[in-house]
Amino acid sequence: MDVEVIYHHQIVFPRSNGVSMDALFMGEVLADLVFSGAKVTMHFGGAPANSAVLASCTGIQTGLVGSIGDDPIGRFLIQTLKHNNVDTRFVQMCDLQSSIATIHLDEAGDPSTILLYRKADAQIKLDVVEDAMRQRPKVFCYGSVSLAHPSSSAALWAAISASYLYDIVTIFDINWRPSLWTDSSLARPLIDAVARNSTVVKGNSREIAWLSSYLGHHATAQSLLHDRTQLVVCTQGNEGCSYYRIDGSEGHLAGYKSTGGDRVGTGDAFTGALCASLATRSVSAIDQIMTADLEQVLDRANWMGGIVASCHGAIPPRNQRTRIKQMFRTSNQR
Predict the structure, then answer these.
(1) If you average pLDDT over residues 26-54, what whole number do you get?
(2) Three-class DSSP category at 76
(3) Does an H or E element contain 105, and which?
(4) pTM, entire model
(5) Which residues of 276-298 are buried (b: 16+ CB within 10 A; e: fewer)?
(6) How far apart are the C-alpha atoms of 52 and 99, rounded to whole Å?
(7) What are 50-61's pLDDT values in tens digits?
(8) Helix axes 150-166, 126-133, angle to 10 degrees
(9) Pick from 178, 176, 209: which is nearest to 194 by CA?
(10) What's 234's DSSP letter?
């Protein structure tokens, strides 16, 4: 079956004065029900929401575009965002129940099964997106879960169109969730289209290889690079990450091993740190970042993933958040 990808470049948003936030995130915000043996715990969740919180931990100004239900879970979600200094002006409440995800951990603490039960989170409205993009963030980050529902998909494409107008650095965290799609062959061209309209593409080795029907993450990363997509980052868990740049250069950064926690949210932590570091760079384009500086950015992202992997849930405790802020303050002053 052919899939038609509609681009909304004709949408024009009025300009606003100045920049009121460093990084804007868009997508699912929900409750994670984490199953570990006979134990069940509830955590704040949703990849973009986790990344917004973790980016905020570094000391930058972040905001989230999302949708929640007017229910106890929704109130828990909004309170968590506010408590972690995430701008919630663009998180709307709707009549549907707040979304949840069930996460089953294996014996090593790695998520073995993730199922999303989507309701409120997909109901992102275009007028909310318009208001959010008028803030002209330095970085705008999103994932593929938004593509699995017509409302959130239309809102995402509108936001990507606005990012062209405002010359915003866009970061696409693939975050592939097969259970949301009845046919993965329909998902691949849509996700590929978003990837090719993003400045930075980030995914784990399986996700990036999946985009090219498993030709390998190296070949896929190279094929994604063009005038719009300037950087592809492939994460590999404890082994670190590899990067591929539009100028043909590439490299690998070693990871940080951690113990004592689960691995829920480690990829979101990497993304949040990546967004935070790029938002503080003075250069106007990713391809202007010197290799040594880019490797420092990715090293900090690996470090952040290691911090979250040593905790339970995606949001680290207060003592770790203080450590994160100090680390990024030092890093950004170099």
Answers:
(1) 92
(2) helix
(3) strand 100-105
(4) 0.90
(5) bbbbbbeeeebeebeeeebebbb
(6) 18
(7) 999 999 999 999
(8) 20
(9) 176
(10) E
